[in-house]
Amino acid sequence: MNAPVDVSLFARAAKPITSYRKYWAHRFGPAPFLPMSRKEMDALGWDSCDIILVTGDAYVDHPSFGMAVVGRVLEAQGFRVGLISQPDWQSAEPFKALGKPNLFWGVTAGNMDSMINRYTADRKVRSDDAYTPDDIGGKRPDRAAIVYSQRCREAYKDVPIILGGIEGSLRRIAHYDYWSEKVRHSIVLDSKCDLLLYGNAERAIVEIAHRLAAREPVENITDVRGTAFVRRSTPEGWFEIDSTSVDTPGRVEEHVSPYMTIADQAKAKGGSCSKDDSLPLALAGEGGGEGTPAPEQALQFVPNPRIKLNRDRTVIRLPSFEAVKSDPVLYAHANRVLHLETNPGNARALVQAHGDRDVWLTPPPIPLTTAEMDHVFGLPYARAPHPVYGGAKIPAWEMIRFSVNIMRGCFGGCTFCSITEHEGRIIQSRSEESVLREVEEIRDKVEGFTGVISDLGGPTANMYRIGCRTPEIEAACRKPSCVFPGICQNLRTDHGPLVQIYRKARALKGIKKILIGSGVRYDLAVQSPEYVKELVQHHVGGYLKIAPEHTEQGPLSKMMKPGIGNYDKFKAMFEKYSAEAGKEQYLIPYFIAAHPGTSDEDMMNLALWLKRNGFRADQVQTFYPSPMATATAMYHSGRNTLRKVTRSSETVDIVRGERRRRLHKAFLRYHDPNNWPLLRDALKAMGRADLIGNGRHHLIPTFQPATDGSYASPRRKNSTSSAPVKGRMLTQHTGLPPRVTGAAKPARKAK
């Protein structure tokens, strides 16, 4: 078994978050809950708060809720931390409830982006909010991070505002906004915050808090990694590169055959992350500035090995806000360069002009070490909602109250997902001891525990302690994904530590069952048959979530997802091990409609695959262009940003307009009679009227039953065509909305 690699190469450049001298107020000790009222402050003996956090979520004191983590981390540094949850934003008065903070405001929209939280992919207002007591919608404003920051400034105008959370993180530069269909400013300008913290912010927020406590002016704090702020000009001593001379040293390879095995893919297309492929990028002639580059010469990378730059004093100037707002090609280029500068081992600072002001982004934060992760998750969380909510149900809390987060980050690089942009692609894992201790704490302290742990996971179920074979190669790599188009030859795929933690957790006294609720990266899982067997035979509660997302090469290549052949291989293993254990179990696959690069024919072929394999999805996900995602840049620009972006570079089929988006969604729900009229018209227009008929080989029938506009999947006794799935599955920390799908055919019981 390979020894797990920690992030020691990065950590050597960072001060441990546990090494600071504690602030004087540590003498008060930890609070049962962070106070939300003056009465609670009085009970703790506080005359004021050093830091006040404002969040758009209900306050649940649990390490799956970002504001609770930030609050407890700052409390452990000795600061008195208060919290204002879901305030009435119509005036500044509710923001004065805890008095004036001594050091700064910490502002976030919450665990989800406030726009995605409030609106569906069709821009319709949601009636619910899983992060609000009793699931009530409308308890936070649109663009909550901006509104809350404005009200904090109105309440106490001289107190610094530190903005964080996923809403700020994904809007740190000029970004396409799906809801207004235009490019908006960096949120640093719109919110008028003093500092924006992006990504996992523990390391940055601890340093900033201590520096502000030492009376350092906030405008002088411009050297903390993972931050963004406004400057008027470039300071002396910095070397500026125009981004139009920067591009990737290499390329994203052609999408391989979807029916090749992972081993074949790695052999044929594995690509190298070696240092030689990742030399620092250099200035190449005259930059393109903020104007429109000439065709063909625009956005080209011309390596110049004679120029060696100091990465720590180099800043890449992106096209200005005004340029990217008026030119989708420049927007695509800027987005691409930003994604190339996300590895904390080699990323450089970025700057983007907005009028006469510059928005600066320092390089990404250094990942937490295992010891630091253990510290963060081992803080004295109450593991419950604040008592102020009484008996109200908070769905997001109910979903994760018996789950354990064992890691952060994702190296999958899926272009539609926000995990990598926010948490990074370097996996940060907790120690085995820390995870087992939390399982025991749930068993002993959490009310209502019945012996079943609902999840041991994170952004994905099976990336725990997986990473590059050496920290040196990892720090030099610029590949956007470690598993696309095949698994990188430098990626360790050993699932041994994860198998071991599963076995030890379920062996604990009082633990009846350990379920895995996080989505499994199945192309990675098939590299370890031992893991798949362990998972299927001991940790599946009837259903297992996986995400093929599509079956066709066009959309899969734009998603950076593996071919459906890998799904077939995993499905065979799943059914084999289920049968050996005598269990009837289901695969629950996710599919996306209307993703960039998806043609009508692609959706038709997916529908045929679904019918052929007996899938009937109850609910489906339509592509949602979240800010800063690579797929969103494709959606806005019509260019493939996985390759070099030029005026004549590859274009992408974009699914726009309500009718076409409805059509793609209808193909996923081919079994719903309400969709048949739309599908009949589309199939005829596509020249595929042969798929309309009443036989088994037809996609939809010729007849149209009488209906009241509603549809429920059939529930036939002993049917193996589908398995209904009720309820909602929350995607934590990603800014993505919940998704639910139907299930596959069950694995047969062994006779």
What does this structure look like?
Helices cover about 30% and strands about 10% of the residues. With about 750 residues, it is of the alpha/beta class. It has a domain at about 10-230. Helix 11 runs antiparallel to helix 23 (about 630-635). The longest helix is centred in the C-terminal third of the chain and has 17 residues, at about 565-580.
Shape category = globular
- List low-confidence stretches: 1-5, 248-306, 713-751
Q: Figure out the total of helices.
A: 25
SS-derived structural category: alpha/beta
Main sheet characteristics: 10 strands, mixed
How much strand content do the residues show?
Answer: 5-15%
End-to-end gap: 35 Å
Number of strands: 23
Please list the strands of the largest sheet in the order they lie side by side.
3-1-4-5-8-9-13-12-11-10
Gyration radius, in Å: 26 Å
- Average per-residue pLDDT, rounded, comes to 86
Region (Disordered): 704-751
Binding site for [4Fe-4S] cluster: 410, 414, 417
InterPro entries: Elp3/MiaA/NifB-like_rSAM (IPR006638), Methylthiotransferase_CS (IPR020612), rSAM (IPR007197), rSAM_horseshoe (IPR023404), rSAM_sf (IPR058240), UPF0313 (IPR022946), UPF0313_C (IPR024560), UPF0313_N (IPR013704)
Cofactor: [4Fe-4S] cluster
